[in-house]
Amino acid sequence: MSVYIQSLTLSHFRSHRRTQIAFDGRPVALSGPNGAGKTNVLEAVSLLSPGRGLRRAASDDLSRKPELLGWKIIAELSTPNGARNIQTWAESGQSRQVRIDDKAAPQVALAALLGMVWLTPAMDRLWLEGAEGRRRFLDRMVLSFRPEHAAQVLTYEKSMRERNKLLRDGVGDGAWYSALEAQMAQAGAQISANRRAVIANLATHADHDSPFPVADLMLDCSAPQDEGELARALADGRRQDMAAGRSLTGPHRADLRAIWAAKGMEAAQCSTGEQKAMLISLILSNARALASTGTVPLLLLDEVAAHLDADRRAALYDAICSLHVQAFMTGTGRELFSDLGARAQHFSVTDADGRSHLVESTS
């Protein structure tokens, strides 16, 4: 294992008033009743990466109530080059801050320290709802391979917001548009290239003998992939975009399609259980692909075992352990993780006096 979290401290974060947890690199199983604070631990870990975490919550929503003092997360990492420290926090009404090894850092710098992929119950409908969620899912996987992807997405989105404002304001000066469209085209072409490269990489690391169905992924995007062609398409589309009040061409309009390879069936037509199994298959392909490069991501799997039969649960745990990856998993009962045995750290999570408590179990 190349990088893992050694310790995690949560201060006034969600239901955790003050929680300190030590880890040894094994998978982590958190069990307890609904509302005890299990998912809050996973959310805290997810905030050790760029963005708004696995719930996409606003910063003030993360602060423990009723105090609303702000929140803080501290993580000590074990890496091949020694220990690293991450601190991220936000005071009430303020934006999120990051420090790495006691030095202020932008959020995008986190991607170079920890690759991270997650699966939550809210994603069970990933293939049935809007394309935005599927793009985020894909970009999270891309980020685990290419940390620079976060900065490219931010550059593209910032330039697009500025272009959209010009469109809504009816600005006709072509020079303003050309500068922004050049930035969008440069970042957009790289975003599309990153996405397609990772989709191809995942396909080569799919396990067709696994009980989890393999999904063939396709990027559905009508925008030009070449930087120059994308810039010309944006310029040619200004009149139409002005009428719409937004940019109608680019990687922000892409969609991710998945087809169950063995049956040739679109993911959206599969049962809920089959869709969940395909998502797990993709997460494991992601981890195997990264392992082939000498690293593995952290896996955050919220309530992952709830709708799996015993054979698939055992297969999932075997796959995680064979990859030597630090996975954080939640479930309502310890029995859901019995197949892991001593291969994982087990924690019981309870809620008492209005705050979460974690106790490690060794039996």
Q: Pairing-aware structural class of the strands and helices?
A: alpha/beta
CATH superfamily of the largest domain: P-loop containing nucleotide triphosphate hydrolases
Contiguous low-pLDDT stretches (5 residues minimum) are none
Give the strand content.
15-25%
Q: Major sheet: size, sense and barrel closure?
A: 6 strands, antiparallel
Tally of alpha and pi helices: 8
* Distance linking N and C termini: 25 Å
Order of helices and strands: EEEHEEEEEHHHEHHEEHEHEEE
Helical coverage, percent range: 25-40%
Overall structural domain count: 2
CATH architecture of the largest domain, by name, is 3-Layer(aba) Sandwich
CATH class of the largest domain: Alpha Beta
Please describe what this structure looks like.
The chain is an alpha/beta fold and 363 residues long. The chain has 2 domains: 1-115 and 295-363, P-loop containing nucleotide triphosphate hydrolases (Rossmann fold); 126-293, Up-down Bundle (Glutathione S-transferase Yfyf (Class Pi), Chain A, domain 2), CATH 1.20.1050.90. It contains 8 helices and 15 strands. It has helices spanning 38-46, 131-145, 149-169, 174-204, 227-236, 238-244, 272-291, 310-322, and strands at 4-13, 16-22, 28-31, 71-79, 82-90, 97-100, 103-104, 116-119, 215-220, 255-260, 265-266, 298-301, 327-331, 345-352, 355-361. The strands form 3 sheets. A 6-stranded antiparallel β-sheet has the order 2-1-4-5-6-7, covered by helices on one side. A 6-stranded mixed β-sheet has the order 8-12-13-3-14-15, sandwiched between helices. The radius of gyration is 21 Å and the shape is globular.
